[in-house]
Write a structure and sequence with these properties.
Radius of gyration: 16 Å
CATH superfamily: Aldolase class I
Number of domains: 1
Order of helices and strands: EHEHHEHHEHEEHEHEHEH
Length: about 260
Amino acid sequence: MSSALDRALIGYLPVGFPDLETTVDAVVALADNGVTAIELGVPYSDPVMDGLAIQKATQEALAGGFRVRDVFTAVQAIRNRIDIPVFVMTYWNPVLQFGTERFAQQLRDAGGAGLITPDITPDSAQDWIAVSERTGLDRVFLAAPSSTDERLRQTVEASRGFVYAVSTMGVTGARANVDAAARTLVGRLRAAGATGPQTLPACVGIGISTADQVAEVLEYADGAIVGAALVTALAEHGVDGVGAKAAALAQGRIK
């Protein structure tokens, strides 16, 4: 996994937006245009961390009949067509409702790489940690600028795959400037034990929307995560548009 997360560009799209088939085609377009890992979002009725673009997309997916089982269908269809890591980002309640062991086994069988869990912390995730050990799935916890040094150490120790460094406080969405706090946060994660792609990569997300911002983040982090900008491109311009946006963002990897 480390090679895919060395100067990584990770692209986020929600499952079932605007429909399941288009989600798969859009993800393949991301991979074909320079995205090196995928983050598939599970639509949820109370997306407290998501900005307006992602909220609107996930609500459309739910209105269109999204079911949790669609996640595994999408992952398998994507992995049949491309060979890059596919992570699932989900609030914890859908996993609990589906069954943690069942969710993990079906994700593993579909070819998924692991889970990104924004609303649980390592000290409240003992069941998930145990299940992920049994199934071999990566577990990605979030680190925020407000986290204490002890919390960052716990996050690094509990994570596998990479640590998701939140660039700023608040909800997701494109911003003109990626918060400078991200650079400090990644430095603190390094000190806590995330020392780069040979051990545990630190990838920065929330607010990244341009190639210049991707290049800026990759000066100090192992990966840049883009969500709202890709969701907006898909909503406004379809699969071709999201592929073109990915290609533009990918220029930041070679600057």
